[in-house]
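2024-03-11 09:14:02 INFO worker-7 job=invfold-0412 stage=load source=structure_tokens
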């Protein structure tokens, strides 16, 4: 089948929820993808910050193959060895205490929202159920996660939305202070806003939030679905800030392309859940956690993270050299970079695609670069050259 054949069938049979580019990638290796017509692309989208070890990583293939010969799935009514091992690694690396596994970022956030409320319910403070979230945030598409998301465009038409969410300004501590009251149970924040335009939190904002939450006795939840798993140059984004949240949520890179999500919490917050309080049939499934274990082993071995820091600094340096009157700034952390333009970037993304470079936006005028963490300098040079060529052709 050609790209066209697949697109035509897709339009007929697949529900119309995505605006799609007219290509169908069918094969991948490392930083490259090939579409159904055989065209090659350098992939700086990576399934939106998912394929952190590139496509079809040999060690991940092996982990999946070995597990697939042994056992695919059992109920969470039994102990699941790779799940227990992945939990141990997440706990060891985060300094938190307990992990819960699910299948996506939205589910991880749902779990965190439920845990925060149940924690106070168990303390006989069920009135504490309000969660402070942020404008321009993104937390997923389930009803609660989309309500936590501070962008009305994602909520339109889905009323009635669940209650209990109030919206503060990102990087504005005073706006949070104004919203804290006796009903507040948690603050939910992305340390680096992703979909909202690749906006890193100011260090003083996150340390201020930690202090505020401690003083008010409320839980601090970091959504690290996009910025976690090595993306920013440390395994968890919170590690840049010298503070620890009570709960973090993960997904995307955790499975390197195999669907999995997780919530990791400290002992205090974890005490909110007892058997029966929350569950997922597929959460922490043997195949998913076998892959996640391998992902974690690779990220935590040798100088992997140091290499991410060095190569991402190189990418940032090369991007900073690009001169174009339409660029406002290039910002971000590690391999989570955004180039903000003074105009919409749709046309630029399409030219890049034609030239064989996959990029995607984060909002209408921010070009997002989230390559695999394994991308090398030659591939970075190639991407920057293609982007420069595309900028020359892009007339707006
Ligand atoms: C910060 C953040 N949280 C949550 C989600 C939702 O994740 P999922 O699409 O896996 O439900 C995303 C997805 O882009 C995200 O960027």
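2024-03-11 09:14:09 INFO worker-7 stage=emit residues=396
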């Amino acid at each position: 089948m050609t790209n066209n054949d697949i697109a035509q069938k897709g339009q007929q049979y697949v529900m119309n929820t995505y605006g799609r580019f007219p290509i169908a990638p069918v094969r991948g290796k490392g930083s490259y993808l090939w579409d159904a017509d055989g065209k090659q692309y350098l992939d700086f989208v990576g399934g939106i910050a998912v394929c952190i070890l590139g496509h079809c990583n040999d060690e991940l293939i092996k982990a999946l193959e070995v597990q697939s010969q042994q056992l695919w799935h059992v109920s969470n009514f039994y102990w699941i060895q790779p799940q227990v091992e992945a939990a141990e690694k997440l706990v060891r690396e985060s300094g938190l205490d307990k992990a819960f596994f699910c299948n996506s970022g939205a589910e991880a956030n749902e779990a965190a929202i439920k845990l925060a409320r149940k924690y106070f319910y168990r303390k006989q403070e069920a009135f504490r159920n309000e969660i402070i979230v942020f404008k321009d945030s993104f937390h997923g598409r389930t009803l609660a996660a989309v309500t936590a998301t501070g962008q009305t465009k994602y909520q339109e038409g889905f009323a009635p939305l669940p209650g209990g969410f109030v919206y503060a300004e990102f990087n504005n501590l005073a706006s949070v202070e104004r919203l804290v009251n006796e009903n507040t149970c948690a603050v939910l924040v992305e340390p680096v806003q992703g979909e909202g335009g690749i906006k890193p939190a100011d260090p003083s904002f996150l340390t201020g939030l930690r202090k505020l939450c401690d003083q008010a006795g409320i839980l601090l939840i970091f959504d690290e679905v996009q910025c976690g798993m090595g993306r920013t140059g440390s395994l968890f984004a919170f590690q840049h800030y010298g503070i620890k949240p009570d709960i973090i949520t993960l997904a995307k890179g955790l499975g390197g392309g195999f669907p999995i999500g997780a919530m990791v919490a400290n002992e205090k917050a974890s005490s909110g859940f007892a058997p029966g309080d929350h569950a997922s049939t597929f959460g922490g499934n043997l195949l998913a956690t076998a892959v996640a274990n391998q992902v974690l082993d690779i990220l935590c071995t040798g100088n992997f993270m140091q290499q991410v820091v060095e190569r991402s600094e190189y990418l940032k340096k090369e991007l900073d050299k690009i001169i174009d009157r339409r660029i406002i700034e290039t910002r971000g952390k590690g391999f989570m970079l955004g180039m903000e333009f003074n105009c919409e970037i749709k046309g630029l993304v399409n030219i890049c695609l034609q030239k064989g470079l996959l990029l995607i936006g984060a909002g209408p005028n921010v070009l997002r670069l989230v390559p695999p963490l394994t991308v090398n300098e030659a591939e970075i040079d190639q991407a920057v050259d293609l982007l420069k060529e595309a900028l020359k052709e892009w007339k707006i």
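2024-03-11 09:14:09 INFO worker-7 stage=report msg="The chain has a mean pLDDT of 98."
2024-03-11 09:14:10 INFO worker-7 job finished
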